[in-house]
Amino acid sequence: MLKHEIRAEFKAKRNLLSIEDIESKSLEISNRLLEVPIWKFSFFHLFLPIIEFKEIDTQPILTLLQGKDKNIVLPKVNGNYLEHFLLTDNTILKQSKWGIPEPQDGIHIDEKKIDVVFVPLLAFDLKGNRVGYGKGFYDRFLSKCKKEVVKIGLSVFEPIPKISDIVDSDIPLEYCVTPEKLYTF
Fold it and tell me: What domains sit in the chain, N to C, each tagged with a CATH number?
């Protein structure tokens, strides 16, 4: 399947989920993350969800990271790129024009300092390729990270067999976590 077809199909599928479905699947994904060998790392990049798009609720992951005393880095859209800020007790979040809770300012974190990135997606395939919203924010961001950064997709759905129109600038995942399974690529 082509990305635009996958994007349309999975937006529609996700739209059919109830808030209760999203909450329970999000908690299952958070619990399954304990199986991923990432807990020796320090800096974890976490997206905050667009609630009206029924994105995975990352609050349970945030709580897990805080409980393990990890440095949590949050993104903020700046033009066509993401900026990254350390989450602290003083961080003020404000909803962007796209409905994304973002830090207003704070301690800027360089991409090269980040160890693990939780990557938002609509769908993924059996090779670790993913389909997002199509704006390329995460591919541009991940291309600036150190090459050994661990990229983990979070999906409420199981993988599709193949995404047909992958290009060189698409950056694959090392892992994807669903409510049912941990996928390693």
Answer: 3-184 (3.40.50.10420)
